[in-house]
Amino acid sequence: MSNKVISGFSSACVHEGHVQDPMYAHITPIYASSTFTYDTAEQGMHRFEGKEEGYIYTRWGNPNFTEAERKIAALEAFGLQDENGKDLVLKGILHASGMAALTTLFLGNLKAGDAILTHFSLYGGTEEMFQKILPNLGINSIIVDMHDLHATEETLKANPHVKMMYLETPANPTLQCVDLEELTFIAKKYNLVTAVDNTFATPYLQQPFAFGVDYVFHSTTKFLNGHGTAIGGIIIGKNLELMNGFMTKTHRLLGGNSNPFDAYLLTQGIKTLELRMERHCHNAMEVANFLEAHPAIERVNYLGLSSHPDFAIASKQMKHGGAMMSFELKGGLEAGTKFINRLQLCTRAVSLGTCDTLVSHPASMTHYGVPKATREQYGITDGLIRMSVGIESITDIINDLKQALQ
Ligand SMILES: *Cc1c(COP(=O)(O)O)cnc(C)c1O
């Protein structure tokens, strides 16, 4: 029996989702078991009918998945109310990867003939899924500049088959933001399902459910896990009937389930989310100020800088500017390559949201699959460098950048 009072975000990070282990282990053990047993045939039947709570088969669910799902759902709902003024309750479904979670999201909500309305500069994998996989199933996507609310609405008027509005804010790697409040308002007028990729912000910096969206998606691989130890993804929804019904069915049948070890690592990682994000954001602000003032730097895209075109939108819907930035050196690609090769402390790797600072080159790495002309239209020039600022001591990060820029 527990009467835990959880009023702060960090308390939620630490305690939400946890249930007392039957063996009294302090930390939920790794339930490495493909199936679960019944005392009687009747008990098995009741679990299948949903009359009795309990696990059946790990593709369907597992205690380690449940803990991570409840924790993340609680963080996305933290401090929010539903339409009736009650504490918002959300349901999360954990997956093997972000891309697996997106597969469930799209196939569970769309059918042949439907279309998705989205914007420029999405995560490379999402973009490729929209271009290379979904069209084969009769699901097309329409790209519009969502900074232009009028154009967005005109596009919806002209395309009544649009069923979903898919947003990624901040988006990769230019840190473009779109206005969640305005766009959700428009989406509701046209009866669209709205989904937001909240991977870069995390629920600590931004809560899209505050604006009435239907789904939030995360690649948990990034800041939620926080340590780069496991791939994972989650969709979180507010329509509980749908989430417990058809979305759960879709997840189980597509088979993109997580595994107990990765879910366990995710759960441990989330416990320090607020601490890490505060440090990540503080460091990122320092790094951005340093780079912006450096004579070798052409421009810096960081949401904490008033020079970013979406500074106002970010300030409205995010707590801080986040840990992600991108920048270009004055010497373009050649200078950029030299800089990356000279780094000693910062790690050369794609991905993001780990404790160490990661540096990558979008044009040749994360956005290699996106045609050059399209890339440049999104601001992903050949010389652009992306950085996920870590939680190291800030002096060491700055000193490494300094020596690499010399
Ligand atoms: C990494 C990432 C994804 C894809 O997630 P995986 O866990 O790699 O499958 C989607 N969106 C964003 C913004 C990401 O950073």
Automatic annotation (TrEMBL):
Annotated InterPro entries: Cys/Met-Metab_PyrdxlP-dep_enz (IPR000277), Cys_met_metab_PP (IPR054542), PyrdxlP-dep_Trfase (IPR015424), PyrdxlP-dep_Trfase_major (IPR015421), PyrdxlP-dep_Trfase_small (IPR015422)
Is Lyase given among the entry's keywords?
A: yes
Q: Which family does it belong to?
A: Belongs to the trans-sulfuration enzymes family.
Residues with the modification N6-(pyridoxal phosphate)lysine, per the entry, are K222
Mind listing the GO molecular function terms for this protein? carbon-sulfur lyase activity; pyridoxal phosphate binding
Q: Which UniProt keywords apply?
A: Lyase, Pyridoxal phosphate
Record lineage: Bacteria, Pseudomonadati, Bacteroidota, Chitinophagia, Chitinophagales
Cofactor requirement: pyridoxal 5'-phosphate
Please list the GO biological process terms of this entry.
methionine biosynthetic process; transsulfuration
Report the GO terms under cellular component: cytoplasm
User: At the top level of its lineage, which domain of life is listed?
Assistant: Bacteria
By what name is this protein known?
Methionine-gamma-lyase
> Does the keyword field hold Zinc?
no
